[in-house]
Structure formats: structure tokens, C-alpha cells
Fold this sequence. Notes:
The chain has one domain: Glutaredoxin (3-Layer(aba) Sandwich), CATH 3.40.30.10. The protein contains four helices and five strands. It has helices at residues 10-15, 31-46, 62-67, 94-105, and strands spanning 3-4, 21-26, 52-57, 75-80, 83-89. The chain has a five-stranded mixed beta sheet with strand order 1-3-2-4-5. It is globular, with a radius of gyration of 12 Å. The N and C termini lie far apart (24 Å).
Amino acid sequence: MAVEITDANFEEVVLNSKLPVLVDFWAEWCGPCRMVGPVIDEMHTEYEGKAIIGKVNVDENPGVSAKFGVRNIPTILFIKNGEVADKSVGAVPKAQLSSKLDAILN
């Protein structure tokens, strides 16, 4: 299971992370989010120790969603050293997400 990221722990888990972070902004009612969800959970296992893979429920955490201007979901941000390094919007293939994450691992 991916790490649950909230308005309360966002700074600690994401911005202060020494590892790159993939953050999936999603909601229960979002069909494409449910398609991407299992991929995010798989990546959590595959990248253990190399990157943090987390999820933000936009309905429960409006602060962090607003801070990053998330208007469409799923939106996936790739964050390195507290800065957004890349972004993906919509349901995209796992290979595309892995490629973007691999690019910031180096």
C-alpha cells in the first residue's frame, strides 16, 4: 500500500524527504483514479528504498491539493528535493510513470 499523505504530514513526508517522491492526487469517486491506484501500489513495492510512493485524497486534504494547483485527477507529481520535477495528469500507463520516476532517481 502506498503511503497516505495528508495536509498534516505533507511537509514531513514529501518536502523533507531525502528520496524522490511520487504523489498521486486522487478521490474515491474518480474512475480513472481507481484504474491508476493498483499501479501506484505496485510501484510502492518496486521502488521501496529508492523512492517514496504516496497518495493524497483530494477530498480529505484540500490544502495540499490547492497548494499545487491540482484541478484534475488523477494528477501525479514527481518531487525531488522539495521541488516538482515532473507531472502527469490523467490515467497513464505504468511504463510512463516508471520512466518519469526513473529520470529523477539519478
